[in-house]
Amino acid sequence: MTEDLRTRIDRMVRQKRVVIFMKGTLAMPMCGFSAAAVKALRDAGAADLGAHDVLQDAELRDGIKEYSSWPTIPQVYIDGQFVGGSDIVRDLSQKGELARLISGG
Predict the structure, then answer these.
(1) What is the pTM of this model?
(2) CA-CA distance, 34 to 21, in Å (whole number)?
């Protein structure tokens, strides 16, 4: 990964408190996993999501996987820290932990 790409992703993950790298957009997710992650985030109280469509940027799609050392999309960050993918986000949501992370508690 280039230093420029790393710097760009650093900025993206800190753009908002809750950021998702996904396939598609918040209004139109392009895969079930992205849709499920967005739903879990919204249900947990994330109103102001930062979202980045990796389908529009091949460099970002590959780079975010290296950045996080996580092989799949979507990827969720809260307060600049990697939280996980769709399954982890849904699991945290079911346990009530996702809402706590989002609220800053």
Answers:
(1) 0.95
(2) 9
